[in-house]
Amino acid sequence: MAEHEDWLRTEVGAATPDRITVAGRDLPTEIMGELSLTELAFLLVTRREPSPAERRLVDAVLVSLADHGLTPSALAARLTYTGAPEATQAAIAAGLLGAGSVFLGPAGDTAQFLVEALARHDGVDVSDPAALRPIAEEAVTARRAAGLRVPGLGHPLHRAGDPRVPRLYDIARAEGLLGPHLRLLELVAEVHAEQTGRELPINGAGAGGAAMVEVGVPPGSVRPFVLIARTAGLVAHLAEEAEHPLGVPLWQEVERRSAGGAGAESG
Q1: Could you read off the pLDDT of 99-154 as tens digits, one per residue?
Q2: Averaged confidence pLDDT in the chain
Q3: Is residue 37 part of a domain?
Q4: What pTM did the predictor assign?
Q5: How far apart are CA 71 and CA 40, in angstroms?
Q6: Distance of alpha carbon 30 from its chain centroid, rounded?
């Protein structure tokens, strides 16, 4: 087994009979009571603590994505709980499994889209807004030519504008973190409107994804990072479901409306 010791290890955490470490730090004395969950998650993913400005922006992103009402993810969690109230972990998992390009996932998709667009123009002075404009035009044109939606734009409910977006931009601006990813996303929205004649506002998930890569979260880690926040929202839905169930009434309503419904089945 000795030859495997160099690779069979993790830097995330470790435990011995008398000590627990997380991110190489003693858990009870260096982390508990010292770091918030946001700060710890950032440390684990990026291997450094966030600055106070970065912590504020990341925390705002997580708070903005914790819940959005009776979304498909919340309904999936509640309905799973209806069938298996003894397995709350399964209900939470059910609510997270649908994190994709339409719900929950656009933060990660937008982050990847923006990072790749900027990477194709490595060496360009991205602090110059004029230099970002052709990058936005190329990125939008390529997505549309491939028949793909432009991530980070549009919302099924907030068609005239997502109220989370201006707040996230305000916080980023106030903290000196309004960088190329967030600015590029604004230009992407402008270019898309010009090319299609349809104004699709930036959505909260898209702005959140741009903000996360702005502070150094790897684009591939953005989607799972923000799911930490949605987990909190799903826990709240399950707590409410336990007190005021809507899973069974919802199921019965679907049965009633479905053509040829044969009624509730018990087994």
Answers
A1: 887 777 899 999 999 999 999 998 888 888 889 999 999 999 999 999 999 999 98
A2: 92
A3: no
A4: 0.91
A5: 28
A6: 28
**Which domain covers residue 72, as residue numbers?**
51-248
Residues in a beta bridge with 25:
22
**What token pair was written down for 21?**
């470490």
Burial of 90 (0-12, 13-18, 19+ CB in 10 A): middle
Please tell me the predicted confidence (pLDDT) of residue 101: 78
Whether the per-residue pLDDT at 261 is higher than 60: the answer is no
| Cβ partners under 8 Å of residue 33, min gap 6 | none
The answer to whether residue 132 is domain-embedded is yes
Residue 235 sits in a domain whose CATH number is 1.10.230.10
Per DSSP, 266 falls in state -
Structure token digits, residue 61: 């992103």
Task: Tell me, yes or no, whether 58 lies in a domain.
Answer: yes
Look at the chain and report how many structural domains it folds into.
Answer: 1
In eight-state DSSP terms, residue 258 is S
Q: Please report whether residue 110 resides in a domain.
A: yes
Q: Tokens standing for 144?
A: 């549309």
